[in-house]
Amino acid sequence: MIIEMTRVRVLGPRAALEATVRALQDAGVVHLIDAERPPGLERHEPDARARRRRHHVERALTRVEGAIDALARLGARVDDTGGALGSEGHASFVAARTLAIATGLRAREAALADERDALRAYAPLFEGVEALLTPRVSIYLLQLRTTAARDALAAALDRAIDGEHELRTHAMTNGQTAALLLVPTSRADAIERHLAAVRIERAPLPAALGDAGANLADVMPRLRPRLAELDRALDELHADARAIARTRGELLARARRAFHDALIGFDAAERAADSPRAFVLEGWLPARDRERLHAALAAVGPEVACTEIDRASWRSDDAPVVLTNPRVFAPFEALTSLLPLPRYGTVDPTPFVAVFFPMFFGVVVGDVGYGLIMIAIAILLRVLTRAGSAGRTVAKIAVAVALYTILFGLLYGEAFGDLGARALGLEPLWFDRREAVLGFLALAVALGLVHLVLGLVVAAINRWRRDRREAIGRGLTAVMLVLVAVALLALFDRVPSGLLTPSVIALLIALPIVVVLEGATALLDFMTILGHVLSYARVMALGTASVMLAVVANQMYGAFGSAAIGVAFALVFHLVNFAITLFSPTIHVMRLHYVEFFGTFFEPGGGPYRPLAHWSPSAT
Amino acid sequence: MDTVWMSAAAAVAIAGTALATAWAQSKIGSAAAAALAEKPELRTTAVLMIAIPETMVVLGFVVAVLILLRGG
Lengths: 620, 72
Description:
- The complex is a heterodimer.
- Chain A is of the alpha+beta class.
- Helices cover 60% and strands 10% of the residues of chain A.
- Chain A contains 19 helices and 12 strands.
- In chain A, strands 1, 2, 3, 8, 9 and 10 form a 6-stranded antiparallel β-sheet that branches.
- In chain A, a hairpin with a 5-residue loop joins strand 5 and strand 6.
- Chain B is elongated and about 55 Å long.
- In chain B, 89% of the residues lie in helices and 0% in strands.
- Chain B has a single domain (2-71), classed as F1F0 ATP synthase subunit C (F1FO ATP Synthase, Up-down Bundle).
- Chain B has helices at residues 2-38, 43-51, 54-71.
- In chain B, helix 1 packs antiparallel against helix 2 and helix 1 packs antiparallel against helix 3 (54-71).
- At the A-B interface, helix 14, helix 18 and helix 19 of A face helix 2 and helix 3 of B.
């Protein structure tokens, strides 16, 4: 539901503006709006001192966040343990020093990591070669531009020296291939002539191991010690960064919070209207939080007054919207949040979605077996996710959906299609939808009728506060919808046929009244709603398709010569059907809510509630 | 012979509406993909717009079922 808001005006001497803004930040309940400016009051303009201070805070914050970010990139996290900042100047100085040190560490880290990566690229080539290093073996480090060049070289070597060689290759990050070639020294001259003839170049040695003219046999033993040295250096560098974060992190975190708070305060003050002597701030807060606001302002002093200027009219278009729902409904706010917020003073659709979304899903899928699998997935998701995360919300919705799926599975007598009936003797408690297709269609349309009549009734009740004419029109439309249903049922002898004439007469009387109340478009609106009722036939269509696919899956067993192959095909079919079952009904049931149901009463256009409060990392 | 005609009528009912739905969804889908590239916040609207033409094939399915059941 949407909670009641109240609009407040805070007045006080101009000198108390900063203190008042800080008090409002402490209270954390007022959503500030631009204050109205009666004659004598102007929009607040910060003076030269305030502008200088803002500039100083912005620069200091840039340094602080730069230092924290640089430390984080070095693997050193800065945690905010709370507490107030002492000297802003000292914090700014420490941040600048830390930023310089951390930037230096990052540059060194990048250089070390680059060298390590370059050496690691050669490690597979040099692996185990040292044992072969004798005067009878010559070694070449080559650079091949393409894979074809490698194959051509291998083939040429086979021809030239009868395979008396070893060729190792490794793809480098620059896209080329490095190759290590070992040949008998007796064949070295022939090999070098061949390499020169086919223009294969020597690969450059990593600078850390030696200069270009260094002997490869001398260089290779240095690789592993150098790699170990680099790893040690990187570990020490990260340990240094963590030590800095330990000693200075708390100060940096406090400074970040304090500077952000100061900037939020500057922005808030600019929403005030003031004169040289007084200021006015205006905003919205939940009516239940008034005492908290009064207590916070009392701490500033008796000269600051707070008055309510627009309370509980439920009509204010600029009032921010706060949704609050019982714990059992709250997860379904994730579904309603996909649409814009409802306008203040209208209806939060979340409770209706919480009731009807799982129910309609259950009506469509209605299978004990699939429901149990959904429960298992929901439990797994709950175990794997953190409280408050999107995954946990999905898990909660999945439990509700699965319970309804099991319930309707029992009513239809289905478990993995007709497998429950065949293997376990499961009987439908209500009806078998594989046989009673028309009954299932009637159920779907009836659910649509009830859903839309409920939406129209909700609209009528809600609009009664603001526009009684429109409210009566919505109510009459709901009555007309019921009358159409009664007339059709009487026509097909489902209710006493004597009801046909009175319901048609009532319909003919109600129709012009609705047109008078809501205008000529009411007729078109009524026809649209009738079409929307028929749209609920998709519940039956999807449900029938789902159960038939499951039945086909079960028929796979026995359709092949081998039982194992039949079972495998049946499992694959059930898996496909289950995947479709998760996706398609979700989309269609959501659509029935968003398009058909919400169309009867939902009024978007509410603004989010963003109270003036202290900064927190999660708020950015 | 009646059975053949009724089966054909049911097939036309579902095939015609399925083709119409597919055509509408192809148009809406490509437009939605283009819109989402510029405004990702329209994803909910896009999904709803794509799902809207499915009403045709749903009603086609219902008509096909009614033809077969009434005829049978």
